[in-house]
C-alpha cells in the first residue's frame, strides 16, 4: 500500500512538472556578457546576449540571417546601451556579429566599435538591454579594461550603471556577494539537493558534517573552474547535478532510515561547484579583482546555503519529535516530488 501511494505521487509529480515551465532550473533569467576594451582612439565592445531574448525584444524571430541585419540590431543596441567618455556620449557601430553556444544556449555575439577623439580618463556605461521591454530579470556580467587595469560589474534592473575606475573594494565585494546569494536562491536544483541531504541528516552533528563536506567540495571546483584549471562540458555538469538529486532522493524514498554520508555530499559537491562557476568563468576575471570577486561570490553562496539549512533543518527535527510522526510520510512524499524534478531536469539536460 505504501509503495502504491509513493508511485501515485511520483506519477502526479512528473505530470505536473512536465506541464509547468517554472519547474526547470535556471529559467526566466536571461544572461548577457560584456567585454569592453578602451584603446587610444576607440572602444571595442564585445556583447553577448541570449539570441531568443534579443528576438523578443526587437519583435523578430532571431537567427543567423536576422542577426546580420545590422541596422535593426545596431539601432536597438544603441538605444539600450549608452557609453559616456569623459561625460560625452558616444555611439557604437556594429562591426561584426555571430551566434555562439554558451552552456547549451544560443547567444548573439555582437562586436561594436566606439570611435573616440582621445583616450578617456573616465568611462560610464548605462545598460538597459531587455530590462524595460522583455526581461526585467536579465543580468549582464561586464568586464572592462582601461589603462592596464580591469574591472568587473553585474548590470541588472536595480543596478544599470557602471563607472570605470570608480568602484571601490567594498562595492565590488558587496556586488558579488549579492550575486552569489541570487545564484543559490534561483538555482532550484542546488536548493533541492541541499534539502535532500538534510532529509538524511539524523543529528545536528551529522547535518554539520554534510553541509561542511558539500561546502568544501563545491568551493574547490568553483575556484578550479573559475581559474580555468579544470573545465567540464556544461551539459555534462548540469545533467550530473540532476543525477545527484535523483540519487539522494531515491535513498530517502527506499531507505529513509539510512544516514547520509559526508563522502556522498563531498563527491556531488565537486560537481555542483562547476555549476556555480558557470557565470564567473564567462566573465574572464583576472588580477586583484579575481580574488575579491571569487571570494565574495562564494561567501554569498554559503550565506544563502546557511539560510536554507537554518530554515529547513529545525522544521525536520520538529517533525521527527512529534508523537504522530508525520515525517514518516512527509520526507518520503517530498522526496518523490524532488525525484520527479530531478528526472525532468536530467531528461531536459542530457537529451
TrEMBL record:
Record's keyword terms, sorted: Membrane, Signal, Transmembrane, Transmembrane helix
Domain of life: Bacteria
TM segment ranges: 176-201, 208-230, 236-255, 262-279, 299-319, 326-347
Residues making up the signal peptide according to the UniProt record: 1-25
UniProt keyword Transmembrane helix, yes or no: yes
UniProt cross-references to InterPro entries, sorted A to Z: Put_HupE_UreJ
Record protein name field: HupE/UreJ family protein
Lineage: Bacteria, Bacillati, Bacillota, Bacilli, Bacillales
Amino acid at each position: 500500500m505504501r509503495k502504491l501511494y509513493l508511485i501515485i505521487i511520483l506519477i502526479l509529480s512528473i505530470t505536473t512538472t512536465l506541464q509547468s515551465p517554472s519547474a526547470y532550473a535556471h529559467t526566466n533569467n536571461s544572461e548577457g556578457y560584456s567585454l569592453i576594451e578602451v584603446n587610444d582612439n576607440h572602444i571595442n565592445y564585445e556583447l553577448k546576449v541570449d539570441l531568443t531574448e534579443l528576438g523578443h525584444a526587437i519583435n523578430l524571430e532571431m537567427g543567423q540571417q536576422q542577426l546580420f541585419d545590422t541596422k535593426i540590431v545596431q539601432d536597438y543596441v544603441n538605444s539600450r546601451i549608452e557609453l559616456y567618455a569623459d561625460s560625452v556620449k558616444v555611439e557604437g557601430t556594429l562591426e561584426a556579429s555571430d551566434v555562439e553556444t554558451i552552456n547549451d544556449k544560443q547567444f548573439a555575439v555582437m562586436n561594436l566599435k566606439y570611435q573616440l577623439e582621445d583616450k578617456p580618463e573616465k568611462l560610464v556605461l548605462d545598460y538597459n538591454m531587455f530590462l524595460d521591454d522583455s526581461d526585467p530579470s536579465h543580468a549582464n556580467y561586464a568586464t572592462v579594461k582601461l589603462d592596464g587595469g580591469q574591472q568587473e560589474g553585474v548590470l541588472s534592473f536595480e543596478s544599470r550603471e557602471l563607472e570605470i575606475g570608480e568602484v571601490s573594494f567594498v562595492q565590488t565585494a558587496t556586488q558579488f556577494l549579492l550575486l552569489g546569494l541570487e545564484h543559490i536562491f534561483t538555482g532550484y536544483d542546488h536548493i533541492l539537493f541541499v534539502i535532500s541531504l538534510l532529509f538524511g541528516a539524523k543529528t545536528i552533528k551529522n547535518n554539520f558534517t554534510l553541509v561542511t563536506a558539500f561546502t568544501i567540495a563545491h568551493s574547490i571546483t568553483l575556484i578550479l573552474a573559475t581559474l580555468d584549471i579544470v573545465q567540464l562540458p556544461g551539459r555534462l555538469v548540469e545533467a550530473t547535478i540532476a543525477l545527484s538529486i535523483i540519487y539522494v532522493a531515491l535513498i530517502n524514498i527506499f531507505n529513509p532510515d539510512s544516514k547520509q554520508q559526508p563522502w556522498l555530499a563531498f563527491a556531488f559537491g565537486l560537481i555542483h561547484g562547476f555549476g556555480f562557476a558557470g557565470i564567473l568563468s564567462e566573465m574572464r576575471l583576472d588580477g586583484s579583482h579575481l580574488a575579491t570577486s571569487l571570494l565574495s561570490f562564494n561567501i554569498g553562496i554559503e550565506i544563502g546555503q546557511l539560510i536554507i539549512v537554518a530554515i529547513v533543518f529545525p522544521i525536520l527535527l520538529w517533525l521527527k519529535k512529534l508523537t504522530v510522526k508525520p515525517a514518516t510520510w512527509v520526507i518520503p512524499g517530498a522526496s518523490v516530488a524532488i525525484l520527479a524534478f530531478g528526472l525532468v531536469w536530467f531528461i531536459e539536460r542530457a537529451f
